[in-house]
Design goal:
This protein is mainly α. The chain contains five helices and no strands.
Length: 106
């Protein structure tokens, strides 16, 4: 069982993120997590936000499926590192440009 006594929510999220390597499932998980955090008014620990960023950086192909308002209010605004914020912003811009170009090539 993943939710053993003594585990904090962030640790459970870290374990799940560590096992997720499918970009579609990762984007869906992060989107659901951000919705849940907003609904329950939760804040994850700094290492969890960093791990989410690292996973999204590796598997950014479905980044645009994550609710943009939650991506900003529940993720970007809560990140501690300004350099990570800058890189996340570049990653989002790059993915939006790729999605735009891809929409015309279909």
């Amino acid at each position: 069982p993943i939710f053993r006594e003594g585990y904090k929510f962030s640790q459970v999220v870290n374990e799940k993120l560590h096992r997720l390597n499918n970009p579609v499932l990762l984007a869906n998980f992060v989107d659901g997590l951000l919705h849940f955090n907003k609904f329950k008014e939760l804040t994850l620990n700094d290492t969890t936000y960093r791990m989410i960023y690292n996973k999204l950086n590796l598997h950014s192909s479905h980044l645009s499926t994550i609710d943009p308002s939650n991506l900003i209010s529940e993720f970007y605004d809560k990140m501690v590192s300004d350099s990570d914020k800058g890189r996340l912003k570049q990653l989002i811009n790059k993915q939006q440009a790729q999605d735009f170009v891809h929409s015309f090539s279909d």
